[in-house]
């Protein structure tokens, strides 16, 4: 981290700002369905409510590590795909984009970014229990993902190398008998908290990694690992930045410790929500197809968005 301040990161939100981003994405999608859903489907689909939308995204975010496990994807690919997924749905609605398809798209793009060539899209679909008909849906969402990420695909720092650095430093202090086992536990904690919560959208990755390391050390030696936070502070000179970083570290530690207190999302309930979402997605698929046809006919610009975004004139984005 540099000395510009702990909050000087893209894709980081306060809790309130993240809620607002989710609400804005939800309202944009719902408005499009209200305006065009009946026209393209002959029966207006029921929009999800905001809680249903957020729960559906959370449910499939927790499935992404399982998919990576089935495909034998390495941890760096899992980490990159998980961050892509979280960032994408921080500003997009599952009514517009299918989270299941986006899981595969994120994993497919992450394999390219991390140069992991052993996992082809064909193998990914096979291991994930999807047929070949899923292929065009996955590839069609690639550009949507890249645009949502603003083509910024480098995901750093990676979890395990960062933990190994912390472990090397820990040898100066440590009463931990097995540092390698501690690294594995901390890595699992980071993945779990980022899959099951929005932690990766609220705190810098370095803070989350350090917080997970601190939690593991506390469990191992039954004492506060305050020196872990001290290592983070070494990069900062201004006191206000140090104060803010300490607060973020403590918040991240609490988020990790409270993970097991979160209620599990009911599978049957999520399947019902997903069923309703698919009707919404079908409407957006048809709207996108119309848009593609108009683009090919030279009637709209390729850069125009399907749903109005803030700062753009809605009148310029309609039929």
TrEMBL record:
- Which ranges carry the Cyclin N-terminal domain? 74-153
Q: Which keywords accompany this UniProt record?
A: Coiled coil
Q: What Pfam families does the record point to?
A: Cyclin_N
Q: Which residues form a coiled coil?
A: 266-293
**GO biological processes:** regulation of transcription by RNA polymerase II
Q: Name one GO molecular function term.
A: cyclin-dependent protein serine/threonine kinase regulator activity
Entry-linked SUPFAM superfamilies: Cyclin-like
Kindly provide the name given to this protein in its UniProt entry.
CCL1 protein
Q: Which organism is it from?
A: Symbiodinium necroappetens
Source organism phylogeny: Eukaryota, Sar, Alveolata, Dinophyceae, Suessiales
Which gene is annotated as encoding this protein in its UniProt record?
CCL1
């Amino acid at each position: 981290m540099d000395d510009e301040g702990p909050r000087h990161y893209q894709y980081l939100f306060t809790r309130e700002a993240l809620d607002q981003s989710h609400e804005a994405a939800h309202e944009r999608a719902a408005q499009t369905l209200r305006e065009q859903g009946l026209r393209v489907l002959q029966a207006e689909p029921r929009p999800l409510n905001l809680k249903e939308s957020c729960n559906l995204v959370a449910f499939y975010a927790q499935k992404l590590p399982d998919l990576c496990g089935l495909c034998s994807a390495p941890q760096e690919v899992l980490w990159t795909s998980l961050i892509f997924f979280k960032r994408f749905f921080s500003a997009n609605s599952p009514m517009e984009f299918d989270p299941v398809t986006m899981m595969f798209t994120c994993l497919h793009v992450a394999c390219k970014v991390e140069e992991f060539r052993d996992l082809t899209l064909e193998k990914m679909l096979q291991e994930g229990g999807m047929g070949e008909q899923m292929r065009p849906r996955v590839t069609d969402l690639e550009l949507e993902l890249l645009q949502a990420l603003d083509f910024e695909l480098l995901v750093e720092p990676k979890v395990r190398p960062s933990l190994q650095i912390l472990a090397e430093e820990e040898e100066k202090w440590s009463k931990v008998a097995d540092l390698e086992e501690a690294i594995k536990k901390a890595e699992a904690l980071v993945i779990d908290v980022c899959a099951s919560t929005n932690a990766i959208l609220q705190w810098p990755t370095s803070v989350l990694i350090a917080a997970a390391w601190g939690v593991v050390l506390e469990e191992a030696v039954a004492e506060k690992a305050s020196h872990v936070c001290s290592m983070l502070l070494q990069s900062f000179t201004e006191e206000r930045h140090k104060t803010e970083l300490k607060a973020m570290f403590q918040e991240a530690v609490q988020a990790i410790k409270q993970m097991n207190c979160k209620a599990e999302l009911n599978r049957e309930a999520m399947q019902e929500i997903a069923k309703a979402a698919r009707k919404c997605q079908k409407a957006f698929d048809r709207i996108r197809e119309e848009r593609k046809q108009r683009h090919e006919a030279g009637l709209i610009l390729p850069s125009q968005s399907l749903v109005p975004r803030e700062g753009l004139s809605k009148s310029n984005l309609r039929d």
